[in-house]
Amino acid sequence: MNGNRDRWASIASRSLAAGCALLIGQSIVSPGAVLGQPPRQLNAPASPIAALPGEAEQKVGVSDTEVTIGSCAALTGQLKERGALVVSGGNLYFNYINGQGGVNGRKIKLVSCDDKYSGEGAEECFYSCLKGKVFCGTLFEGSPQAARYVPKSEQAHMPMVGFSSGAEFIIKPVHRYVFQVRAPYVDEAAKQIDTLSNTLGLHKIAVVYQTDAYGAAVHEALNQALKANNATAVADIQLERLTHNIEPAIKKLKAAEPDAVILGVTGDTLPLLVQAGKQIGPHVQLIGFSNGADLVTKEAGKEADGMLITQVIPLLGSNAPTVQLYHKLLRQSGTSESTFSGFEGFLIAMTVVEGLKRSGKDLTRDGFVKALESIKDFDIGLGPKALLSFSAGSHCGLRSSVYWTAVQDGKVVLWSPKKK
User: 259-294 pLDDT, tens per residue?
Assistant: First the structure.
């Protein structure tokens, strides 16, 4: 597993170094912070954020020639490769736009911050981004951190665009300054349970999830989907986040004798469980969420063969102009390997740029929010089934169809279920 990890880390590091300035926050950590607090954290008392005069607040990070935006993602720790890929994918597109002269006469400057995939790290990173005078936040990665960023966007009147997370609390209820590009985990969970139960005939379904906001999000999504299909999990197992101790879970899964196991975990825990899959049973079907696709193939490789993964980012099997542009820019940057995480970052950056274009020369935060909400059925180069749409009542842009992939020969490929 370490060999694959080193290779992936090298790819991510080269991509990130191509244009991202690394800024590690050094500021305040809220004394009441709870690691990876699930959605109820969104109603927590406001943290002390210094108020700026109205006009100054509207134009933070904006000059006549440049607009500064900030990213908070895991750049250290177990999720560092995924975080770096999301950021580098976004920066790839920003650099492309800057090479064409920028947006409305302004170049885009990205300040990338490390939140260490933790709630406390998110607090630190957020305040660093404020101090750095960024116009908006973007290219966020991880549900535990999103649980901190979403309420802070409201408190600071700071637009935030694009979380590499499918937690539903990001989009429901609608938060004025928060915009999401990808579809939520509830859409993936509905697809997973429907396919397992009604197409593949696998009714004994076990669920494994981790103890943080990511685990809570996928667990709730799966419970909703199971209930909709009049089913319950034969095993419902919670693991400590990012743990290497998977033996208790394996023991419980073996005892439950499931037909399928859905894995709502990340970090080292995910490939470890995948590699131990045969211990659960020789014919047990493993299921994963979209955010784990790159991690599984890089860390588990061919040991993950046969695993099924739902996807919401339209990367595979597409000749769409945006997919081709992503591949072209990757090659020009010296990185030939495309990833779901990198392409998600690319699409997030495209969304930010479209909002900046529609905002016009007089760029303000409120104007940027209104510009994003004006995007309706916009073709961003992914074809007619993946149109970008926002409105005042919906801040989830690409709620396109969930599709299936499978791991074959250590790579993610398209897969279509056949009814049994």
Answer: 999 999 999 999 999 999 999 999 999 999 999 999
Name the pairing type of β-strands 308-311 and 403-408: antiparallel
Burial category of 50 from C-beta neighbours within 10 Å (exposed 0-12, middle 13-18, buried 19 and up): exposed
Q: Name residues whose C-beta falls within 8 Å of residue 307's C-beta, 6 or more positions apart in sequence.
A: 274, 277, 286, 287, 288, 296, 406, 407
Tokens 């509830």 -> residue: 186
CA distances for 191 relative to 263, 308, 383, 394, 405, angstroms: 14, 12, 22, 22, 12
Q: What is the pTM of this model?
A: 0.88
CA distances from 251 to 222, 256, 259, 269, 318 (A): 22, 9, 15, 15, 41
Taking alpha carbons only, the member of 316, 266, 214, 263 closest to residue 79 is 266
Q: Locate all alpha helices (DSSP H) within 164-229, ordered by sequence.
A: 185-194, 213-228
Residues 126 and 119: their CA atoms lie apart, in Å, by 11
Residue 42 DSSP one-character state: G
Amino acid (1-letter code) at residue 284: V
- In the numeric block, the tokens 């995910």 are attached to 270
Compute CA 197 distance to the chain's CA centroid, rounded to the nearest angstrom: 27
d(CA 347, CA 386): 11
Q: CA 407, CA 117: separation in Å to the nearest integer?
A: 26
